[in-house]
Amino acid sequence: MNKTYYRQAHGALLILDISSPKGKGEIKKELEKWIEGFREVRGDEVPIFLVGNKCDLKEEEEFVEGVEEFAKENNMIFWKTSAKVGTNVDLVMKSVVNAVYEKHFKGQIEDFQRIVMEKKSLCVSLTGNGQNQIDRSGCCS
Q1: What pLDDT is recorded for position 122?
Q2: Terminal alpha carbon distance of the chain
Q3: Which of 17, 50, 124, 136 has the highest count of CB atoms within 10 angstroms of its CB?
Q4: Looking at the 3D structure of the chain, how many domains does it have?
Q5: Beta bridge partners of 48
Q6: Segments forming the whole domain that contains residue 65
């Protein structure tokens, strides 16, 4: 994947098929390469999550244990999911959103809420360039 996609990422999901695994060494090398590239651009502060999909199908236990061990070694949470039947999909998405919020946005949201409570009205300019601005003049009253 092109590293320019990583620049403004606040989190990442690595999703792999646990029903038809490649050789353990091969998948580990692919994961390590992806994580190294991602952390090279975003550093260690951005959370990365590992998801083993298709748990509704027969899984190779030894492979799954290897993936779980890899996740532990790399300080990642590992979930087994099934997009087909919905197993753990909501849990994963809620956990990812919560982790990204706690890591990157909690202070910003609290500042925004404080401003709203102080002014009781405000305008937010969504510029599309990541530089959203809050007009504290009370223009929306």
Answers
A1: 46
A2: 46
A3: 50
A4: 1
A5: 12
A6: 3-105
